[in-house]
């Protein structure tokens, strides 16, 4: 029993060490999030120059589902590394006032941009193609959107599906995930 307690304590401590910090805005902050001017066209250009995909995550202060993603999913070493290696991540505060410039040139405070995109849940994660047609807003060009918190394998498989450009194939994400999940649960 003492051994089990020591193992669980060590495991919980290691998770806490790697969990994201909370910023002054009440949102989780990670090393893989980028601090940019939140101009999505510029961010996409920078992501492309690094060979990464642009990902925008919308969160809010006190969101229990955001906390779940940061403390239970994003801390999984395989997921954390995959994000670091493959994604250029921008965080948007659902009720924030920082100006965001959309792909179509519209500039609004975060809270207004979130409304414009129709995002209702946090976290909401938008994934973007490497090229965006002119005159369209982010919610129109996103290749995938994850509204809400999902578990380890759904999140990991979505991250992979986007990098593999699964959205351009005949296999929808749900079938991709079911196929991958069969081998992952063992």
From TrEMBL:
<feature type="signal peptide">
    <location>
        <begin position="1"/>
        <end position="19"/>
    </location>
</feature>
<feature type="domain" description="Thioredoxin-like fold">
    <location>
        <begin position="47"/>
        <end position="134"/>
    </location>
</feature>
<protein>
    <submittedName>
        <fullName>Thioredoxin-related protein</fullName>
    </submittedName>
</protein>
<dbReference type="InterPro" id="IPR036249">
    <property type="entry name" value="Thioredoxin-like_sf"/>
</dbReference>
<keyword id="KW-0732">Signal</keyword>
<dbReference type="Pfam" id="PF13098">
    <property type="entry name" value="Thioredoxin_2"/>
</dbReference>
<dbReference type="InterPro" id="IPR041737">
    <property type="entry name" value="SoxW"/>
</dbReference>
<dbReference type="InterPro" id="IPR012336">
    <property type="entry name" value="Thioredoxin-like_fold"/>
</dbReference>
